[in-house]
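JOB MANIFEST
job_type = single_chain_structure
chain_count = 1
residues = 88
[input]
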Amino acid sequence: MADAIDGDWCSLDGRHFEIVGPSIITPAGTKTTGDYSRHAFAYQTPESDPGSGATIAMILVNEQTLRLQSDEPAGAEPEIWTRCEFVS
């Protein structure tokens, strides 16, 4: 899966989400589905999540990095997320 967007992703401020095929567990912990391709993912933020109704689009930059863009608020800067490093 290293060459796919699937997996666990973390932000510098501690947020986390997980993509498995067309399913995502959002940073707020809601399970929903979106538009999946091997190197990109997009979904509409569920009503129960902050920023509900916003469209979130992500693209894989490299194996360890993705760029996330929300259409709300208008003109928001893209965010850079990295693969989570979990210690067992």
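[summary]
The CA atoms of residues 36 and 55 lie 14 Å apart.
The mean pLDDT is 94.
exit_status = 0
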